[in-house]
Design a protein that fits this description.
The protein has about 130 residues and is an all-beta fold. The protein has no helices and twelve strands.
C-alpha cells in the first residue's frame, strides 16, 4: 500500500474557468494505468465554475456549506454538506457556492485516454446564477 505523505500546494481557480474566488487542491492523481483524479474545491460565496462537461462524468460530494448545481436545460439544484451528485458523461453543467455561503466539495473524475478531464464551455451569466 502506498500512502501519500504530501500533496501539491493549494492553487487559485483560474479566471478562464471560474467566476469569483475558488481554491483547488488536487488530492489524488495515481500513476497509469489509473486515470482517477480527485480534487477538493473551495468556493467563496457567489463563486462558481463555468459551464463544462467531463468525458467520463463526474462525482461531486459536498463536504461543507451550501452550493448550487445545474445541468444544461435543467433546474437549479441546491446541494448541502453530505450530498453526492452524479453528472453523466458529456453532460454540460456548472456548480459552485450559494450567493451568501461558502461551499467545499470533492470532485472525482476519470481522465480520457488523452489525459483531458474537462471541456470548458462558457461563463455562467448573472441571468442564470441567482444573486
Amino acid at each position: 500500500m502506498e500512502i501519500a505523505r504530501t500533496r501539491p500546494d493549494t492553487r487559485p481557480g483560474p479566471p478562464e474557468r471560474f467566476t469569483g474566488t475558488v481554491w483547488l487542491d488536487q488530492l489524488a492523481a495515481p500513476p497509469a494505468p489509473s486515470r482517477l483524479r480527485l480534487f477538493s474545491v473551495h468556493f467563496a460565496p457567489g463563486a462558481r465554475t463555468f459551464w463544462h462537461r467531463h468525458p467520463h462524468g463526474q462525482v461531486l460530494h459536498v463536504t461543507e456549506g451550501v452550493g448550487l448545481v445545474q445541468r444544461a436545460g435543467g433546474p437549479l439544484e441546491e446541494i448541502r454538506a453530505g450530498d453526492t451528485v452524479w453528472i453523466a458523461p458529456g453532460e454540460e453543467h456548472w456548480h459552485g457556492a450559494g450567493p451568501r455561503t461558502f461551499m467545499t466539495h470533492l470532485a472525482i473524475v476519470e481522465a480520457a485516454a488523452d489525459g483531458t478531464t474537462t471541456e470548458w464551455v462558457a461563463p455562467v451569466g448573472d441571468d442564470v446564477y441567482p444573486a
